[in-house]
Amino acid sequence: MICKTLKTSLILFFLLSFSSLSLMAQDVESGKTTFRALCKSCHNEDMKAAMTGPALGGVQERWESQEDLYAWIRNNQALVASGNAKAIEISKWDASAMTVFPELTDPEIENVLAYIKEKNDGTYAPPGGVVTGLPVGVAAEDSSNLMYYLIFGILGILALILARIISNLKFLSDSKENPEGTIERKTFFDTLTSKNVIGFAIFALVVIGGYTTVNNAIALNRQQGYEPTQPINFSHKTHAGLNQIDCQYCHDGARRSKHSVIPATNTCMNCHLAIKKGSVHGTAELTKIYVSAGYDPRGKGEYIEDYENLSQEEIAEIYKGWIEEQYLAANEDLTELDQEGERVVKDQWNGIVKSLTNDLKPKLQGPIEWVRIHNLPDHVYFNHAQHVTVGKIACQTCHGQVQEMEVVKQHAPLSMGWCINCHRETEVKFADNPYYESYAKYHDEIKAGTKTGVTVEDIGGLECQKCHY
Known about the structure:
This protein is an all-alpha fold. It has helices at residues 2-39, 59-62, 66-74, 76-81, 85-91, 106-121, 140-177, 188-192, 195-218, 236-242, 247-250, 265-272, 283-293, 312-330, 339-356, 384-390, 395-399, 416-425, 440-448, 464-467; strands at residues 295-296, 302-303. The chain folds into four domains: 2-124, Cytochrome Bc1 Complex, Chain D, domain 2 (Orthogonal Bundle), CATH 1.10.760; 143-218, no CATH class; 263-356, no CATH class; 415-469, no CATH class. A hairpin with a 5-residue loop joins strand 1 and strand 2. Helix 12 crosses helix 13 (283-293) and helix 13 (283-293) packs across helix 15. The longest helix is centred in the N-terminal third of the chain and has 38 residues, at 2-39. The N and C termini lie far apart (64 Å).
């Protein structure tokens, strides 16, 4: 009887310990999940740079009253209407009001704030980054897995200890009940191979295997953070950032079609007929554009006649001559190429050939084969024009701060959950938008004050056939 009671108590202790450890481990991770679902579309996840909304690093310190901060998160408009000075100050950040989250509980808000603090302090590294306190090279995702492995390891050891204790207690109990009999004490190996331990091991393997399988299935073909090397070292930071070229100048399909389109070489030539030397790479990258398009940057600067039929040797003679001219122009004391100049010409030409040719495209002439970064599954319908022209969504909402990227990478997960959360939270811009004039009911409710805004969900943005037709 004592043995059974103790066994039950130990099992309960084991389960409670497991639950407590799981909850402790999930606080910041839960905050991360909530942040990415509700906040990331407007706030930069590095917590230091502003986006649509201000940087959130140090947000708790900026509010004197934590109660007011929680009230702001749940319903910022109500706090502004109450005359709260801090709320009024923050509301001036952007003309569009922050989304309200009345359903968030105190623990959920605390988890998000904990994630913001850790991210801002550098104790929570982004995917591929380094976690404070861990050896260099241990990534955030790896550290999270390491924590779970450690917990499972501790629980496994605890299970073995408990099994051994129960075995010894049973031996003592049996010895008391049958003092004359010969009762053999079970060895540690017997404990390891007992039905209970084997059953627990199978259960643990099923749980871990199921978790891993589902996790990998969900992440299948996800490319968040994907940053491939492109055939040309094109800097969005220089073009969209420094020179403030509008995204839709190059990706002009975004405003009028399903696809944003990869700009053709003639779009590049609109500027680079005049700008023939790059601020960072000189002639090395721009010459690739000229070779692709068949433009001769020397002399009058004209497109080469019958360029499609020229051999690689004939093309090399033209563009090596151009690179040589530029090198001599930069080194006025030289009248002919020195050893360094010969190396520059050779390296640049080899780089051009490597970038513009491959096994399937042996010729230099023709389109530049850019590496696609953002790619939705074939069964998903997405229309850029619907979001950019009708919805008036900024490119940075989905693609991140492209104007700050030297090499573009996939900013958002582009998962179904990410899209659905955006549709639930994003308010449709009804004002002065003729596309939405047919929604008379919502216009009347907004005028009457019974509705503060209309989300994409309200106008059918969560209907399956909208994206899966």
